[in-house]
Write a structure and sequence with these properties.
By secondary structure, the protein is an alpha/beta fold. The chain is built from 10 helices and 10 strands.
């Protein structure tokens, strides 16, 4: 199953267990900030998201107008990913500046359907999750454009590909056990099929496909037995897959 990049602990666990692996980029996802369709909010600055979600906001930032004086004085209700989620890690790093740094007084769930229902049923709710869940529920929700200093940008395949949807676009990967790929024909066949067909299949599950040359470069990693990750255990907000693939991966 596709996932966000390996964390430092996962790298260490693989190293201690003697497991070698390939890191293969598969698609982009776009974390989407959503509100109830009856909410007038259409654009939010990254700095305003930080005001809402930073740890120091807990118990203090309770109403919309505490974030922006032009907004409503009604209480804001927040919905977001659970703390064990890669979505939580990426959102907090992109918005607050540090992974896992977040206020705790919000409705957290690993089930995105819970978040969808929470926002859909409350005019003053705001939440975030992957673009796929927004696309599946866009009649119940409204996406908010993200202003990172150059005006509001909505999540879409086009804005993810052209790099304008920052900082909430992120690459996702599959990680393949090198021994299994090298010794089990069924694993090799599956992974090769995955790379050859991802560009056509990825949009069907509401992710954003990579350019063909990125999938080809991933296939070269397998062919040349380039093991490990290009991240070194650290996330990098706004990283393009093409730039990641230029790095020499390390275990």
């Amino acid at each position: 199953m596709p996932r966000v990049r390996f964390k430092k602990k996962e790298m260490d666990d693989c190293y201690l267990a003697g497991v070698k692996y390939y890191e293969l980029p598969i698609a982009y996802d776009a974390l989407t900030v959503v509100v109830n369709p009856n909410n007038p909010l259409s654009v939010i600055k990254v700095s305003e998201l930080k005001t809402l979600w930073a740890p120091e906001a807990q118990g203090k930032i309770k109403t919309w107008n505490q974030v922006n004086p032009a907004w409503s004085a009604e209480a804001v209700k927040l919905f977001g990913a659970g703390s064990d989620s890669g979505t939580f890690d990426y959102f907090t790093e992109a918005v607050v500046g540090k992974a896992k740094s977040s206020r705790g007084d919000y409705t957290a769930s690993e089930d995105d359907n819970v978040l969808v229902q929470g926002v859909a049923n409350d005019k003053n709710a705001l939440g975030y999750f992957g673009m796929a869940y927004y696309e599946e529920n866009k009649t119940k929700l409204k996406a908010v454009a993200i202003d990172n200093g150059k005006g509001g940008v909505l999540p879409s395949a086009e804005t993810v590909k052209d790099g304008s949807y920052v900082p909430l676009a992120r690459p996702i990967f599959i990680y393949v056990n090198a021994n299994s790929y090298d010794t089990k024909p069924e694993v090799k066949e599956f992974v090769d099929f995955y790379l050859k067909n991802a560009q056509a299949l990825v949009p069907q599950v509401k992710y954003v496909a990579l350019p063909a040359e990125d999938y080809a470069e991933g296939a070269k990693r397998l062919e040349n037995k380039k093991l490990g990750t290009g991240f070194g255990g650290k996330s990098e907000v706004g990283l393009k897959v093409s730039d990641l693939l230029k790095r020499e991966p390390k275990l």
